[in-house]
Design goal:
394 residues, alpha/beta, 11 helices, 17 strands
């Protein structure tokens, strides 16, 4: 998850303030959404112990309309239009950047691959204040979508392993969840906006990820039958990811290279769905109501093996990721931090594990350490210093 590191100034405030205002903005392949939420903070430690601050409640105060993500063309986000959209939603919510305590602006799905995604985010950083502003990798997006849809709570309530699939415009994000804990994540290039059509049925866009399974390109008019066949193939790819179909090499090409390699579940799972296409699973829309494959893909999923067993739609569908960003992207760190010769605050740094390389400044995440002792921290610091002694510091 995204982590906000709260330093001394925030601890002073939290002695008197039990609530934080959080905003989440998700710039997705198809849609852009904003939510405003209130996070309740409680100190779970006794009066004589080191503070142990936890987020104990989340309340959504405002949800924006669902906007189509503004684009300049197939390769570039319209940053100016996006900035105006954010300003207008602030006015509608009755807030200003100065009022916001925390939150996240994330670019997800195919939109995160656009050539100017990073530049657009940097232009939004000024409006975002204390936000985390980042392109969300598929693993992070999987976690946010699952939490926003309520899938971890569903697994606890049912007492079953849950495979959550968030099926958006450009990608489908997977989270395997057991007893409320997300065990692993993955991602596939399956979504309703991988092809776009005009009113005459002519293709205006075809994602390059489809080249092995769809023999058409922009300018062609493939007809409804060919598009239904594509939707069936994409549903079969999701079946494969859920271990409901044998491995197919052409469909395997749809796994994203940016995500952690996906290992399909071996056990029986309850399937949970969110994302814009999930709305099309539970509702009947005209085939090309949105100028894309979404309704046909939803129908293909509904009649596939994915919906013949135990399944449900998430508590949130199209809003799952933005609610995950606004309500589940903040954690409170330990009670004290010491930093020498570092200009604070440090903003928008990627969080990486020991197993992943990273260029530029980053935050190191070390899994498996729960409430480490001071001696353990000293030992870890010594190992990090030794392994990084030849690194170039900026």
């Amino acid at each position: 998850s995204l982590t906000i590191f709260w330093f001394e100034e925030y601890w002073r405030r939290l002695r008197d303030v039990a609530e934080l205002l959080s905003v989440g903005l998700d710039v997705g392949t198809t849609s852009t959404q904003l939510i405003l939420s209130r996070l309740k903070i409680e100190n779970r430690a006794s009066g004589f112990a080191v503070p142990e601050m936890e987020i104990t409640g989340r309340e959504v105060l405002y949800q924006s309309p669902i906007h189509f993500t503004p684009m300049l063309d197939g390769q570039r986000i319209n940053g100016e239009a996006l900035k105006k959209l954010l300003e207008e939603e602030y006015r509608s919510a009755g807030i200003s950047p100065e009022m916001i305590d925390t939150g996240a602006v994330i670019v997800t799905g195919e939109t995160s691959r656009k050539e100017n995604a990073r530049t657009v985010l940097e232009s939004l950083a000024e409006l975002a204040g204390k936000f985390v502003v980042t392109t969300a990798g598929p693993d992070l997006e999987s976690v946010l979508a699952a939490k926003g849809a309520g899938a971890p709570a569903l697994s606890e309530r049912l007492g079953k392993t849950v495979l959550h699939m968030d099926i958006g415009g450009g990608t489908s994000n997977f989270s395997l969840i057991q007893k409320g804990k997300i065990l692993r994540t993955g991602c596939m290039n399956v979504g309703g906006r991988l092809v776009k059509l005009d009113n005459a049925g002519k293709l205006t866009y075809v994602s390059p990820v489809l080249k092995k399974i769809f023999p058409y390109e922009a300018g062609d008019t493939p007809g409804t039958e060919a598009l239904e066949a594509l939707a069936d193939s994409l549903a079969e790819a999701l079946e494969m990811a859920a271990s409901l179909r044998e491995i197919s090499l052409p469909l395997q090409s749809l796994y994203t290279t940016e995500a952690t390699p996906w290992v399909p579940p071996r056990e029986a799972v309850h399937l949970s769905f969110s994302g814009g296409v999930a709305d099309c699973i539970g509702k009947e829309y005209p085939p090309f109501a949105f100028g894309d494959l979404g309704p046909l893909l939803g129908k293909a999923i509904r009649k596939s093996r994915l919906c013949t067993g135990s399944y449900s739609l998430g508590r949130q569908t199209i809003r799952a990721t933005v609610i995950g960003a606004g309500c589940h992207s903040t954690q409170l760190s330990g009670s004290t931090v010491f930093m020498q010769n570092v200009a604070l605050p440090l903003k928008n740094l990627p969080v990486v594990s020991c197993q992943h390389g990273q260029e530029g400044p980053f935050i190191l995440f070390h899994p498996g350490l729960t409430a480490p002792t001071y001696r353990q921290i000293q030992s870890l610091a010594a190992e990090i210093a030794e392994s990084a002694k030849d690194a170039v510091y900026i």
